[in-house]
From TrEMBL:
InterPro entries: AB_hydrolase_fold, Pept_S33_TAP-like_C, Serine_prot/Carboxylest_S33. One of its GO terms (molecular function) is hydrolase activity. It comes from Aspergillus minisclerotigenes. This is TAP-like protein-domain-containing protein. Keywords: Hydrolase, Signal. Belongs to the peptidase S33 family. The keyword Phosphoprotein does not apply. Pfam families: Abhydrolase_4.
Length: 413
């Protein structure tokens, strides 16, 4: 897939998309069982060819998506749920394999995107600049210089292929898989997690009539201000610190993530354009100033790697079924405020708040949350406004879903 998240594909059958590349409805070639890393059981794998460039009506080049399906544990009575584990850059085959007993189906693969020819070059580059923009008086200047080299290296390795991995292409890919599985009139049931919420929100805005049940877990950058992702990080750090334990709150920065984020963003022109955002970021959170790395990389991104299509519209959307929005109360990456903002724009949507810590509601088991999600995907039932779900395990334990969920509930998954 263009970015390593599950169930991504694209739709080309709407009249409003007549200027985009047209492709015949593809067929998934199922290949049998596969065994991804960390799998808790067998998956069925296959492939699907989709257009490489949706904006080029003259091209017949295709991209082969790898598709993974986790079979239902009992006779299926509902439509499949597409799961996007986010990132950008998360390996969804591994994510689906790990969570397969909780999620029913998923998909994933990626256009190779790497900014270095080997691991040695990557490691050397990582040592050349401070990770924190407030590490010293010269830290941001050093980061800017290193980011110049990074952006140049990414273009040297990927060229114009870097323009093919943006969010809107991932959204179109998702609907291509849906068409192949269920037909071009099918509705999409989708659980987007972290960056998967970005893909989901863009799909809902571009193709609202194709949406079925849409759950968005921890809202991220496409529908936020530039520094919105750090709004809750200091509160999370202070609360976790009160437990007397150390926790690592690190970013998932890698080349694939930078490729997608920077392709989607409108680039700045100079360091002086970026510094105001970096200063605000540092003032909002004591631990989030390392976000300057991404800002400075994207500011110098080669224009030939800008996403060929970017969604620039609003998110005042009415979908056939109201959207379920989920958020932890304490999330270092995607604050509760972002979830509240999106809930206000998607007509009829409801926010479920989980009184937990970590990134996404999956970070800590909650039977209450699981029941809400199950009811929503079963028949569209939404929780009452203001519902707060408690978690079932304390912080920093090794307890899992299997340890805390009743056997009767697990059997129904």
């Amino acid at each position: 897939m263009r970015q390593s998240s599950s169930f991504t594909a694209g739709l080309l059958s709407l009249a409003s998309l007549a200027s985009l590349a047209q492709a015949e409805l593809g067929k998934i070639q199922w290949k049998g069982l596969c065994d991804p890393t960390n799998a808790t059981g067998p998956m069925i794998c296959g492939t699907l060819d989709v257009p490489l460039d949706y904006t080029d009506s003259t091209s017949n080049k295709t991209l082969t998506l790898d598709i993974g399906k986790w079979p239902a544990t009992k006779k299926a009575t509902a439509e499949p749920v597409f799961v996007n584990f986010g990132g950008p850059g998360v390996n969804s085959f591994e994510g689906l394999g790990s969570y397969g007993k909780e999620f029913q189906t998923g998909v994933g693969n990626t256009i190779p995107f790497s900014c270095y020819s080997n691991d040695s070059s990557r490691e050397l580059a990582s040592l050349q600049a401070p990770k924190d923009g407030t590490a010293s008086n010269t830290a941001r200047g050093e980061i800017w210089a290193q980011s110049t080299n990074y952006a140049q290296a990414c273009y040297a390795q990927n060229g114009e292929n870097g323009s093919l991995i943006g969010t809107t292409f991932a959204a179109r890919d998702t609907l291509q898989v849906l068409d192949a599985l269920r037909g071009k009139d099918a509705k999409l049931n989708y659980w987007g997690i972290s960056y998967g919420t970005t893909v989901g929100a863009v799909m809902a805005a571009m193709f609202p009539e194709r949406m079925g049940y849409l759950a968005l877990d921890e809202l991220i950058y496409y529908v936020q201000t530039r520094n919105a992702t750090v709004l809750g990080s200091s509160e999370v750090y202070s609360t976790v610190k009160s437990y007397g334990l150390s926790a690592s709150l690190t970013s998932s920065s890698n080349e694939v993530e930078s490729g997608i984020r920077c392709s989607d963003k409108a680039a700045s022109a100079s360091m002086s354009d970026v510094l105001p955002y970096s200063n605000v970021r540092a003032s909002l959170s004591r631990i989030a100033s390392d976000g300057a790395n991404t800002d400075m990389r994207c500011a110098q991104w080669n224009k030939k790697m800008y996403a060929k299509e970017r969604y620039t519209g609003d998110f005042d959307v009415k979908t056939p079924h109201p959207v379920l929005v989920l958020s932890n109360r304490y999330d270092p990456s995607t604050p509760l405020a972002a979830a509240k903002n999106l809930t206000a724009t998607f007509e009829g949507s409801v926010l479920l708040e989980q009184n937990g810590y970590g990134h996404t509601t999956l970070s800590v088991p909650s039977l209450c949350t699981a029941k809400v999600v199950r009811a929503y995907f079963s028949n569209g039932t939404l929780p009452a406004e203001g519902t707060i779900c408690e978690i079932d395990v304390p912080l920093f334990t090794n307890l899992t879903y299997a340890d805390v969920w009743p056997k009767s509930f697990q059997a129904g998954l």
